[in-house]
User: What shape does this take?
Amino acid sequence: MQATETRVPFLDLACIHKQMAAELTDAFAGILAGGAYILGEPLERFENEFAIYQNTRYCVGVGNGLEALSLSLRALGVGPQDDVLVPANTFIATWLAVSQVGARPVPVEPDPDTHLVDAAALRKAQTAATKAVIVVHLYGQPAKMDDIVDFCKSEGLFLVEDAAQAHGAEFKGRRVGSFGEAGAFSFYPGKNLGALGDAGAVTTNSESLADALRLLRNYGSAVKYIHEKQGFNSRLDALQAAILSVKLKYLDAGNERRREIAQKYFSGLKAACGLKLPAVVEGAKHVFHLFVVRHRRRDELQKQLSEAGIQTIIHYPLPPHLQNAYRGNSYDCGPLPVAEQLAGEVLSLPMGPHLTDEQVDYTIAQVMRICNELGA
Ligand SMILES: Cc1ncc(COP(=O)(O)O)c(C=O)c1O
Assistant: This one.
């Protein structure tokens, strides 16, 4: 049987990197010739650039997005005996960060339309031991931060933003990752701002938090071979930092293209039978890391799109509480019907600056055809 030719790749990083290949090669050559590969000037330069982009006072580069979250919690003093409120429908890293500091992730059901948690849901899930909240700007869409900031302030809870999917997203004109005590970013290659390997960062306006993070990421040391804390090895490589400095210049244009593609999907797919399009939060500047639709017959839709040469991905097929990693946990969180229903129905359509208008139009035409055949 002949394999179907891919006509619309979900993401094509090699294609995205082509337009900046000369600059990336120069950045690589500069690091190679410079001879310093850990910490140092290239990292500081990127940290400054990203802090300016975020409009935060500090940015601390770390090894990846998971450690951006776990080191933030650790630096805030979250640990055993503490509960941390987390969305029920996030990538497992959000939960793992909590578990890794010895605290307990307490799941919060998302809104079924936006797939995001809001202040009312956080309040409902709050326990006596809750010390912090991790809010996730899922798929690139900011959560309703004004209500969430008010809730955390009134309850005296730390607020950590998981902005791994939301570089450049804004809520009411302010960048996500600048609302809470800490904003955690992943620069995994497929993100809107991605390195050529693993990388992450924390943005913050707190000098003491930035200092604590700098210690924690570097064996608890500010002065070579003098160790204030039992730290970790979680530094953002100089090479990745130099690559990110190049790619940061292309982030806004890439996000604008994503928003343009999203508009095409919104208008082209509004009459698709049985298809639920994503709801956009008022005041949110969504950067569409993912364009996630819902369909009751999602698996059939995905299969037929694949036969038409269109790649799609499910983010995520199994919520954290149903993963073996969290089964049989001392804390049984019981059924989470909204997160479980979303996991059975969500489908991410191709999205990214690699897509041509023709590919987007073809995807729209195929989704329309298949949805109309499948019925409501
Ligand atoms: C919402 C969310 N949080 C955290 C992470 C973890 O980032 P990393 O893969 O860089 O550890 C990811 C990455 O996929 C993510 O999507």
Residues 64-66, 90-91, 93-94, 136, 162, 164-165, 186, 188, 198, 200 surround pyridoxal-5'-phosphate (CB under 6 Å).
